Amino acid sequence: MKKSKLLLVSLTSIMAVLLLSGCENNMVVFNPQGPIARQILELINFSIALMLLVTVVVFGLFGFIVWKYRERKDNLDYEPPEEHGSTVLEIIWTVIPILIIVALTIPTVKTIYAIDEVPKGYEDKEPLVINVTSADWKWIFSYPEQGIETVNYVNIPEDRPIDFRLTSAGTMQSFWIPALAGQKYTMAKAETQLYLVADNPGSYVGKNTNFNGQGYAGMEFEVLSQTQKDFDQWIKDVKETAPKMTLEEYEKMLEPSHLGRKTFSNTHLEWVDHSDPHSKNYTNPEMYDRGHGWPGKIFEDKDNYKYKDGNNDNSNHENNEDMNHKESETEDSHGGDHSGH
Amino acid sequence: MGIKWDEFFVTGDPLIFASQIGIALTLVGALAGITYFKKWNYLWSEWFTTVDHKKIGIMYILLGVVMFLRGGIDGLMMKGQTAVPENDFLNAQHYNEVFTTHGVIMILFVAMPLLIGLMNFVIPLQIGARDVAFPQLNALSFWLTVSGAALFNISFIIGGSPDAGWTSYFPLAGKEFSPGIGNNFYAVALQIAGAGTLMTGINFVVTVLKMRTKGMTLMKMPMFTWTSFITSIIIVASFPIFTVALALMTFDRTFGTHFFTISGGGMDMLWANLFWLWGHPEVYIVVLPAFGMLSDIISTFARKTLYGYKSMVISIVMISVLSMLVWVHHFFTMGNSAGVNSFFSITTMAIAIPTGVKVFNWLFTMRKGRIKFTTAMFWALAFVPNFVIGGVTGVMLAMAAADYQYHNTLFLVAHFHYVLIPGVVFPIFAGLYFWWPKMFGYMLNEKIGKWHFWLFVVGFNVTFMPMFFLGLDGAVRRAYTYSAETGFGPLMMISAVGSVILAAGFAALVYNIYWSARNADRNIGNDPWDARTLEWATATPVQHYNFASLPEVTKLDAFWHMKKNDQLQPLTEDEIEEIHLPSNTWIPIYMGVVFGISGFLLVFEWTIAAGIAALGILAGLAFRSFDYDEGFHVHKDEIFETESNWRKGANKGVKNHVS
């Protein structure tokens, strides 16, 4: 009996050590490369310290009580007292967690608000807007100002706030660059936003964390932070050398597939903005058929991707029976104007 | 209907092909065995048609253990796949199906049946009642759960398993991106099982409110009864949400509506909200009864009254209220405003307050006690340190800004396994070791139990501790593979080794059940643990009418005080009265079968056939409404004989079977 007790104590202490050792390492979340990730890490470190305190106290108390009041040969005739509780003690261990929660809440709320904005110290620099569109199973980055588009990699200038505008062409994804910032979901017909700044030039991994089917595990991209000079040079090179993408090519790209890196000297925003609630659908059910099992019935919506040939904007709205009919039409004509420019 | 029989069974995967053969052989073997030993009649009259809460409870537990095996194999397959980088043991599609079914089965067909099974067995006894409020409804709940579980389980050999995660987020789970029928299985099977659970919730709310024995006020109820009561209320509050969400999902998938799709103006976020409005309380539905078991077990083996009973009750009520107010923390990163995220951060963290109160009360229950280290107590003790790790990481996740870095990573996976395994599975094991003698009249072996304990607890920590670090290093959940450059390999391998130890622990439990059923001592009396609550005041195993005369309660820990004050009077013949009990009925199992058939047809989108089969459900309801069976009476002589038999044994020196 004693042996097993000892084992239990040693096991719990090993776990505590493991938790402690979590603080010094080369794990990506603990090596932030920009102010947003650093702010989050400060919050994480603060919470780890407080939580370790809680853990140590409870483990200590637990070990002490279980050890001291265990049944032994010499206390077999000991009859424990009848206790029903203690109001004072119970108030104490209600109030202490409340205090801890308050202590955690204040920096949490501050950080939540802080990382929703351009980080402090960078307010004077104008953010670089990059539209992010996720599709199965690739990441498309559009630089509307520069008029270029990349797939599965994104180059950013160092020390300048980046304003990512996130949306999805289909399934829901989550856009995460752990070294630079936390994650946000990308959703079709909606837009989310994420600010970040990179301290130094360097290459970082970005990935999708929200499961979206068979190609999910491969949905990674590279974030390359460059000096402003290198970045400008890269933009120039792309504009001069990269091919133009056609609508047809773009729609082909949205089909479920893995792609390598791609670079274009125009953006898909001239045809479609997936964050627009009335944008066209690019779903293509038969391409997701997984090759075994019962196929199931597929509903043939008029505005589905597979009807893209010979279909014009009018049929696009047949399924939009709501009152937005008119509005979306005018928006689409805006899109037409853009492509005309 | 255009049936293509060559696509009916899942083909092309050797693993699945092997299980198809295995399942067919097991099925044939089981049917032949039952026929050979002429057990059909026994099974039908004693088990399949029973309305006895104890037998229904035992059948729930059996279902839970069998499903644990299935869900555990899923878990091992996942760990095997990710043990080394770029492994090709499972392909992406197969892995996706495996983690989806692992999640659903572990939560809905392992945790729920095991807990509801223990609730079924214990609650009526703890409150001194002869049955639940609606015995036939109880049987119906069980058979619907079985029906849902069966439907969900056949998916991997017939038609294809769901593959959109146990959360089945839209639009992925819709026809646009999951055209196969796998997710129909999800929608229909969970709907059927969920209906059963909702009925259980209603049944236990009424049972606890109306069936308590004389003198048992709400504040004299044992803690397990309290937590189960609160759980039942949460079930009644949250399951209808899931029912609606699943119904809308079925419409979307089967009839082409657009509630959650992106193509027809649907809202994919609506699914996320509805799902977690049910899904978050669901976590408390499984964890609260487990807390109750711990309370009863800790106070029994520390030989003390539960410390701070009132604050325990207030805590669970607080937890139940908060459980409905925190669902958004599952999608902090879905672009909510800072204000929304702040609000849900605070409500989520607030759950730590009542939970903390409970942990300290448990610790102080043991203080000044005399702690007896039975296997049941081992499980209860292991809960504390392990659950604290789950709890503090939960607080870390609750901080929305920090969650931007943890969300959907293995850190999150580690956290919820640290909550659900110590918080649900450990207490269930504790409860099984604790109440096993009451159910079957013998104890599970303590020595094998310790093996079960150490293997399982060590394996659990080795499996899930590395995941915290993997998550902080950027490893995402649900990825079927990863490259060697990520550096995840070594920790993933440790985790996989841990899962094998964990599985060995579970195997020890199965062996223990087998060994004890054959070899355990049957002469253990009615109160082998020197326990405190009323279920131990009856015979072991419990006679079918529970109590010959309903006990009267004056204090908390009623049985303990009866023992201390020598109030365990032998029953005299003139105190005995005839007992009225409900008759067995075939309607619940019939309903389970027709629900299953109708559901199966609906899964395959053969809607007309499903509609015709559903007429069988109406027929069952109609038959039930004309069923005037008033039950039967147990005669005085029989009661007297049973009672004097066990009471004689109870007074013999059978105590202290645990070293």
From TrEMBL, chain A:
Residues 125-237 form the Cytochrome oxidase subunit II copper A binding domain. It holds the Pfam family COX2_TM. Its main location: membrane. It is an enzyme of class 1 (oxidoreductase). It is a multi-pass membrane protein. The chain crosses the membrane at residues 46-67, 88-106. Keywords: Cell membrane, Electron transport, Membrane, Oxidoreductase, Respiratory chain, Signal, Transmembrane, Transmembrane helix, Transport. It is found in: Cell membrane. Gene3D superfamilies: 1.10.287.90, Cupredoxins - blue copper proteins. The keyword Ribonucleoprotein does not apply. GO terms for molecular function: copper ion binding; cytochrome bo3 ubiquinol oxidase activity; cytochrome-c oxidase activity; oxidoreductase activity, acting on diphenols and related substances as donors, oxygen as acceptor. It comes from the Bacteria. The keyword Oxidoreductase applies. Belongs to the cytochrome c oxidase subunit 2 family. This is Quinol oxidase subunit 2. It comes from Mesobacillus boroniphilus.
UniProtKB/TrEMBL annotation, chain B:
SUPFAM superfamilies: Cytochrome c oxidase subunit I-like (SSF81442). Keywords: Cell membrane, Copper, Electron transport, Heme, Hydrogen ion transport, Ion transport, Iron, Membrane, Metal-binding, Oxidoreductase, Respiratory chain, Translocase, Transmembrane, Transmembrane helix, Transport. It comes from the Bacteria. GO terms for biological process: aerobic respiration; electron transport coupled proton transport; respiratory electron transport chain. GO terms for cellular component: plasma membrane; respiratory chain complex. It is found in: Cell membrane. The keyword Transcription regulation does not apply. It catalyses: 2 a quinol + O2 = 2 a quinone + 2 H2O; 4 Fe(II)-[cytochrome c] + O2 + 8 H(+)(in) = 4 Fe(III)-[cytochrome c] + 2 H2O + 4 H(+)(out). Pathway: Energy metabolism; oxidative phosphorylation. Its cofactor is Cu cation; ferriheme a. It is a multi-pass membrane protein. Its EC number is 1.10.3.-. GO terms for molecular function: copper ion binding; cytochrome-c oxidase activity; heme binding; oxidoreductase activity, acting on diphenols and related substances as donors, oxygen as acceptor. The keyword Nucleus does not apply. Its main location: membrane. Pfam families: COX1 (PF00115). InterPro entries: Cyt_c_oxase-like_su1_dom (IPR023616), Cyt_c_oxase-like_su1_sf (IPR036927), Cyt_C_Oxase_1 (IPR000883), Cyt_c_Oxase_su1_BS (IPR023615), QoxB (IPR014233). Binds a copper B center. The chain crosses the membrane at residues 15-37, 58-78, 98-125, 137-158, 185-209, 229-251, 313-332, 344-364, 376-402, 414-436, 448-471, 491-514, 608-626. Residues 38-554 form the Cytochrome oxidase subunit I profile domain. Belongs to the heme-copper respiratory oxidase family. Catalyzes quinol oxidation with the concomitant reduction of oxygen to water. This is Quinol oxidase subunit 1. It comes from Mesobacillus boroniphilus. The gene is qoxB.
